[in-house]
Structure formats: C-alpha cells, structure tokens
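Page 47, continued from p. 46.
Same chain as before, 429 aa.
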Amino acid sequence: MTQFPFSETYQSAPFWWEGQTTPAPASLPAETDVLVIGSGYTGLHAAIQTARAGMSTVIIDAGRIGEGCSTRNGGQISTSIKPGFDLLKRKFGADTATRIFREGQASIDFTAGFVAEEGINCDFRVVGRFHGAHSQKQYDRLAREAQSQHPVLESGAYLVPKSQQNEELLTEFYHGGIVFPKHASIDPGAYHAGLVTVAQQSGATLISDCAATAISEEGSGHEVQTVMGRIRARNVIVATNGYSGKLVPWLQRRIIPIGSYIIATEELPSELIDRLFPSSRILSDTRKLVYYYRLSPDRKRVLFGGRVSLRETDPLKSGPVLHRDLVAIFPQLKDVRISHSWAGTVGYTFDHLAHAGCHNGLFWAAGYCGSGAGMAGYLGNIIGRQVAGDKSATTVFAEIPIEHRAYYRGNPWFLSPSVLWYRIIDALS
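Result:
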C-alpha cells in the first residue's frame, strides 16, 4: 500500500510516457554515412536532415529510444536565453548579443513551423508564460524591466499586479508577476514520438540499448565501439547533452549534468482546475531555485517541477518535497495525491548558454540549461544540415567558445554549495 502523498496507481516514470511505444529492435550495421549518438530532440532533428539529404543514417541510444530528458521535461518552450542582454553585450559585444536573442526566438518559431509542416500531433500551443514574483522586491524588479523596451525582441511582455493575479492563477503566494505571451507548451512525449516517425520515414535507422563506449578516428571517418559491436561512420554527431558521460572527455569537461524533478498529480475535478488555473499558461517564478509548472494538455492534472535537494536523489524522495512546495503555492491541493514522480538530467554550461559545433571531427550540440524543448531541435536541425553540406546552416551558438573550469571532469562537486547559496539568495530577495 502506498503512503501519502503517492496515489495507489503511482508510477516512477514520466507522465509523458503513457501511450507511447518504442520502435522495433534493429541490428547494428557495419558502417554508415552518419552515426547519431543520442535519440532525443537534438539527435532526431539532426538525423532527419542527414537522411533527407540521402545519407545513410543510424541513431543509437544507450537506453530505450527517447528515454532521456526529451521525454522527461515539463513541455515548456521559451526563448531559452538565460543571461540578460546587457551581460551578453558586455561579454560578446552588441552584435553577438543581438544574434543570440534573435536565435532564441527563432528556436520557438522553428519548433512551431516544424510541428505544423510535419503534421505532428503534440498539443503545441502558444499559451504564454506567467512568471510569478516571489517577493515584493522581485516584483519591483520585474516592473523596472517591463518599463524598458527590450533592445532586441518585441516580447510583448506585460506586468500583472497582485490585484489582477487571480486572472492568471488563484494563489496568494506571489506578489504579482509578468506574462511573456510568445512562450509555448508542448506534449514532449507526443512530440518525440512524432519525431521518431518522421526520422524513420526519412530513412533513418533507430537502435535502442546500444551504448557507445569509445570513439576513434579511422581514415576519413570514425570507428565507434558499442555494446553491440563496432560501426564505422564517415560522420558522427554527439547528441547526448546531460547524459554525455565519459564518451567524449572534451565535452564532459564542459557540460554540467544536473537533475531536475517533476511530479504529476492525480486527476482533479474540472471545477477545481478551472478555479486555480483560469488559463492554460506555462508557469514559473523568480526564485533562483526556480519552480516550473503547468497543466497537462487535457487540463486534468498539475505537473510541477524543480530542484529539490542539495544533491541528486530519487523520485520517491523528490516527490513529497515537490508536493510540499506545490501546496505552499496552492493550499487547496493539500489532499491531492501524486500519480507520477520522475527525474531527468539536464545539461548546463558555465556561461548558461547552449552551444554547438565540430570538435576533432565530431559534430555536437548541447548545454540547453533546462530550456531544451525548443533549442535542442533548433540546433540539432542546424548540425544535421551542416553534416549534409548545407553552407547556409550557421548559428551564433557555434561561434561562442564553450567554457570549462580547471579540475572539472564532469562531476559537479560544486552543486551542493551552489544550491545552498541560491536558497539563501531566495530567502533574502
């Protein structure tokens, strides 16, 4: 018998996996034009481009196809740019900063266009984001930002004072907030399933449970050792992001794997949902240890996610913590149980920007910093086109050097003190 807050039907698997199927098993060929390592949004979008260019394309994954964060995220799509324009301007110059922000918006537009063109049924909707201020000080900061015109994007963002907050969500937790009307939501499981179908129809071969263990140069290409044997590839695309591990040490030193945790509630009465969530916006707040949440596409459940502890943990431990924090925002949900609790590993970078490029003959894109629902596919598409020889496939994220730190080898030992420091900041801000 399960204990509160878990339901009797509790699952330690993503809510998005329900109803999704895994592609039929396939054998590993001896050689291919393109080998894509990783079957998430990045890898699938890259593979679609190379396969459509007439290149034999094989996608392998260490687990089941799409088992990583592409089917474990919250289904929120934003511009994916975390640093502010002024910071980027000081660091890279006005031109590069402008291009970064424009490509951030382009990633949303790309996803919308791709879904529409390919006819993928994944509940993609431009619903807007409500970003709640967890203190009066943070609302005042949002107000100052809203008053100044964004130097690049016409975001259409507007303030929502606390007196009007109930039009967005019924809670006293926030001190007002800001709405970004161009942000979108998606069913990440259905989106991934649609990408799998498009990739297969384009001619790509998908192979699950085929972990790559070593990559070596061989002639004009590479030889990749996997648990299923060796495969020779003229081109290799590394699309592993937060799951990169030791396969490519150069990348391991530059990607920070961080766990993100999500719960889904059991189905709730429609009148309660409609009262608490008058709109279907995606939601987040101003805390450094940010929480992100939304309704399920059918408006029957609340999906609530965030960082829960100083170190990595498991869904049985993270679930009650997230439930407690959900109830802090919505006391009306104190008796609601959890039907799903899961985790995914996101890839962060030291400059909080996504990156892409080609290093030692290996093409790659990674470091979406928790905002990969749109950016991963956007950069995967560009990398795939580059491999296919499209000279117009360029991105500013391949021009910005990806940072590393001395003595960092992929183990984020600094995570605990960072989380603790953010908690202190949140309490004081």
